Amino acid sequence: xxxxxxxxxxxxxxxxxxxxxxxxxxxxxxxxxxxxxxxxxxxxxxxxxxxxxxxxxxxxxxxxxxxxxxxxxxxxxxxxxxxxxxxxxxxxxxxxxxxxxxxxxxxxxxxxxxxxxxxxxxxxxxxxxxxxxxxxxxxxxxxxxxxxxxxxxxxxxxxxxxxxxxxxxxxxxxxxxxxxxxxxxxxxxxxxxxxxxxxxxxxxxxxxxxxxxxxxxxxxxxxxxxxxxxxxxxxxxxxxxxxxxxxxxxxxxxxxxxxxxxxxxxxxxxxxxxxxxxxxxxxxxxxxxxxxxxxxxxxxxxxxxxxxxxxxxxxxxxxxxxxxxxxxxxxxxxxxxxxxxxxxxxxxxxxxxxxxxxxxxxxxxxxxxxxxxxxxxxxxxxxxxxxxxxxxxxxxxxxxxxxxxxxxxxxxxxxxxxxxxxxxxxxxxxxxxxxxxxxx
Length: 440
Known about the structure:
Layout: H1 2-13, H2 21-45, H3 55-65, H4 67-81, H5 83-86, E1 93-99, E2 115-124, H6 129-195, H7 201-236, H8 260-265, H9 271-292, E3 298-307, E4 310-320, H10 326-395, H11 401-436
Antiparallel strand pairs: 1-2, 2-3, 3-4
Helix pairs in contact: 3-6, 4-6, 6-7, 6-9, 6-11, 9-10, 10-11
């Protein structure tokens, strides 16, 4: 009995839980199922990695995500969709003609004496007009497709240039940071020499002033990097403040041409020039089409006449247009000829523009490459040797602090000039590649 009372008291102290384990499990199952589905869908909905670690990632992102290229793709598809309708027959027309209506009783049935005429007409353009219209639409579609290729080249060149500036700003900051570290080291040397009475206090102060000046330049370089990142994101079709990956190394842009003449030999094959040529050919086709419109088209029709409840007779119709508006037709022919001449002139202007851009880009690329080679092979070793000599001489008191500071500035300035020359070389290479047609 005491054991039974103890069990009853235990039940009062520990009543049955409000929620049975089975009920809790049933409520937990939807949550578990939703979590499992979310985990399974996570790889599909995960965001793509931020571009920027390499130049290839930038090119791939531009070709796949740039909104302007998507719009041009849709416009090219729309131009192709216009080819078939351009040469199609016009829609036929059908007519119903009620005759013999009684003004007082127009609702009479046909068997009460009303005559009904049915007709179906189809106009047929002759003299090859449909083929010419289809050819002109095809040439316009080719021009739109070439415009898309031109835009892809320009966007890739802009992306490569923006990525080069983005990388260059980061490298310039690295050079300036190294320069600040060296300035702090020579400041410590100057302080030690001042404590030993071998140098003036002004040496350490001049090192501090120089550090402040370099810090100011560093802030400018960081601002340039932010501007380059915003420009690069705009070309990529992303938000201006979207994150970019840190470049893994210096971008590499290969130029195929070995001379300026070789680079300009392909100017005629540039898609911008070919696009204008396709438009000129479309305009020439329209000239022929307008001349063919001097000859009339025909319209063929069939009909039937119902009187009462039966077909009383059938009819076959043939209509011919009368080319009466000769003045308007001559003006349309004149318009087509002027448009052809304008398209040819625009093609020549585009060719000259492409050649000018190619020559300017080639000059920038070659001069920057020569300047970088001179800095790397001559100026940097000379400046490094001068710095090492000035540092050793200052430590033993053979040169003053101004000579040491000048040697440091020349050495690190040469390194910064090397980075700037590499930036200019890459920018020129990107412009040359846009003329050559290197889009991958």
